[in-house]
Design a protein that fits this description.
45% helix, 298 residues, 7 strands, seven-stranded antiparallel β-sheet, 10 helices
Length: 298
Amino acid sequence: MLRPFVAYLRVYEPLRALGDPPAQQLVEAVSAGGLSRVGIGEREQRMWLKSQAAAPVRLLPAQLRDGRPSPSLGTDVLVLDPADVPAGHSAEGPFACPLELRARSAAALSTFLADAEPALRIAVLDASGVTADKARAQTKAAMTDLTATAAHTLTTTWTVPLPWFSLVDPDERKLVLGSGPADPAREASWRTPMSAALRRASEAGELIETTFGDSGPGRVLSQTRQWLESFDPDSVVELDYGGLVQLFADSLLNADSTAEEVHDILDALRTGNVEELAELFSQLREFWGDLAAKEHSN
């Protein structure tokens, strides 16, 4: 069964940062090892489908009929293996990334309610059997699930925003090809200390805004930096291809040099090397263009 074609930018915080003290339910879930990284996309998809198949329909996943959060709120957490903590990171673990599916869905719904065309907004609310005021009240209540001022996970489908690669060191990549695209163990990810990610985001953001202004990649980096600043400075940042690894043959995934090319673009911007910039953008367009074509066909 295919995993959802979702990539992730995650923050794993030290357990001590997730409450004072952390909830006992969370502590026990972390001690048990947390959720399987491989099954995260499937779990989120299953929880959403369950909410839509319920009678009556739940406005948000991981939510009980009366609007209260599901008990899974306290146990759905990813735990970072000590072996995967970046070298030189001095803070003590364990490091955990709460799934926060109800709160993340609430944030997306809140944006939808504010930005969607009236006809579409009314159709969605009617299908859920709630008024706009009730939907806003439920989304506001769900946001209190968060242990920080922001959710610990950002997601994107079919591709990875190129500015995200500026946060990591290309040499930090973890690549597991397994037996092929369908292997559940297949993984492409990078992990870096929060301090390094913030420094890189700041440097790259200033460079891009100076060159191109505060739109496009500059805006993405600015928003991402603000998001990272919401968390404990001893956290670990992870860029994970997630289910996208199923879309690449072994040879392509092994040869993927996107992180290196993004950093080379930043170096070319610093030196004003226009020819190198053009070549690097062409390479990235070719590599990620195949995924764009697959998304279009779907």
